[in-house]
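Quick one, tokens below. Sequence please?
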């Protein structure tokens, strides 16, 4: 292929003229013929049995050209990106492809007009971006707080011979009667429940409070109209319950037995495991906040006039986000008007929110695209292949299904932008707060 010309039409749109060499074009035509010849009907031949020359004589010599050009377009886009350095946004809605000429002797000359991601001159400004979040150290007090939570989460219980009170764990059995007939599939046997947690009907729980082991109670209960079991919704029934056992909840002590209950050999091992878990949490929180700050300040490097001139990109992304949001709202069973009423938004509020997100996404893409350009970041076919494999294995979906949903172009950009952000992230610098400088000076 040859890039014959490149014309920039603003910061976010380009016109390319490319020549598909005769040999490449003829090869693509042969592939199309092999796939599609069986679909043609020619008088005097059974469908799909006419030789190529008779098909061309009947339908015209260019009959295979359009399919050949459409088939080779992905290769054309890939060539144009590599040759021009432009990140072409391959959207059917905004891309225009026109055949200037096409024949087997001279090849195919195509004019492609498409939106592209702009590249701004960073001149190294993406390196040394400041962030002001520091990773928190785990303190003994935090470990102590976590141990208190664990002790509360795993209390011990002791059987007592007294009436049940709130906070006790009781073992109960009950049956439900309607019009004197027992409802078999509603009864419970030896069910353990902590009183005061709301896991029983209020009337039944009130009746069990004060019962000792072996005592019984009967209580009328009226189910709400909205009850999930239609047989019982709005119905009045009689619960007959029996208290089998009463257990008092007691606080545990921090000892090796408690550590073993949680799978650790002793208290020291439990404390070390908690320290490691808290350190991982702090690492995640630090990385997330650093990511947010660094990306926010990188995006700030994109001038407002570049975004205003890239309005077609924002509009296109805004339409995609709007369609996705509406589809999600419908999946939850709401119409748009219902959702707006429930969320307290107007249509204008909804649109502004969507297009603000779209603008931010486009700014982020421009910023990362510019970093990738300045750092000469490339992505190999092997990396794209491995990414497909990673997604396939991670979601347990065949690779062909993944490819039907995610294009290689999308993965190529994702990998490129990940690499670009890593460069920025790794080069970011901690902006030491003034108070820390003062403390260090005093020390």
């Amino acid at each position: 292929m040859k890039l014959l010309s490149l014309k920039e039409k603003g910061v976010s749109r380009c016109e390319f003229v490319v020549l598909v060499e005769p040999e490449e074009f003829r090869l693509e035509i042969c592939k199309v013929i092999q796939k599609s010849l069986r679909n043609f009907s020619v008088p005097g031949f059974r469908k799909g049995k006419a030789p190529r020359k008779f098909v061309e004589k009947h339908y015209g010599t260019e009959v295979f050209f359009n399919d050949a050009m459409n088939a080779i377009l992905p290769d054309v886009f890939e060539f144009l990106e590599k040759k021009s350095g432009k990140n072409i946004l391959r959207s059917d809605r905004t891309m225009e492809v026109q055949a200037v000429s096409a024949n087997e002797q001279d090849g195919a000359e195509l004019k492609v007009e498409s939106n592209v991601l702009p590249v701004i001159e960073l001149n190294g400004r993406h390196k040394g971006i400041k962030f002001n979040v520091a990773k928190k150290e785990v303190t003994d007090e935090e470990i102590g707080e976590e141990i208190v939570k664990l002790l509360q989460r795993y209390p011990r219980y002791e059987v007592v011979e007294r009436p049940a009170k709130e906070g006790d764990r009781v073992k109960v059995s009950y049956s439900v009667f309607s019009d004197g007939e027992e409802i078999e599939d509603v009864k419970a046997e030896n069910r353990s429940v902590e009183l005061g947690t709301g896991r029983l009907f209020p009337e039944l729980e009130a009746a069990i409070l004060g019962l000792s082991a072996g005592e019984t109670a009967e209580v009328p209960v009226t189910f709400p109209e909205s009850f999930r079991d239609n047989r019982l919704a709005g119905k009045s029934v009689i619960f007959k319950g029996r208290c089998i056992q009463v257990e008092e909840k007691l606080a545990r002590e921090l000892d090796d037995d408690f550590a073993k209950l949680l799978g650790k050999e002793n208290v020291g091992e439990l404390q070390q495991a908690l320290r490691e878990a808290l350190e991982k949490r702090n690492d995640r929180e630090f990385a997330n906040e650093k990511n947010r700050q660094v990306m926010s300040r990188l995006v700030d490097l994109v001038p407002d006039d570049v975004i205003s001139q890239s309005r077609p990109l924002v509009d296109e992304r805004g339409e995609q986000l709007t369609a996705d949001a509406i589809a999600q709202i419908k999946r939850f069973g709401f119409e748009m008007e219902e959702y707006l009423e429930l969320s307290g938004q107007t249509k204008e509020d909804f649109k502004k929110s969507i297009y603000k997100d779209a603008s931010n996404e486009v700014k982020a893409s421009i910023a990362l695209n510019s970093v990738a350009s300045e750092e000469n970041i490339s992505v190999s076919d092997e990396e794209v292949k491995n990414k497909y494999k990673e997604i396939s294995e991670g979601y347990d979906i065949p690779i062909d299904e993944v490819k039907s949903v995610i294009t290689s172009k999308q993965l190529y950009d994702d990998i490129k932008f990940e690499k670009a952000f890593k460069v920025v992230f790794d080069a970011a610098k901690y902006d030491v707060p003034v108070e820390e400088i003062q403390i260090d000076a005093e020390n």
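The mean pLDDT is 90. The CA atoms of residues 160 and 247 lie 6 Å apart.
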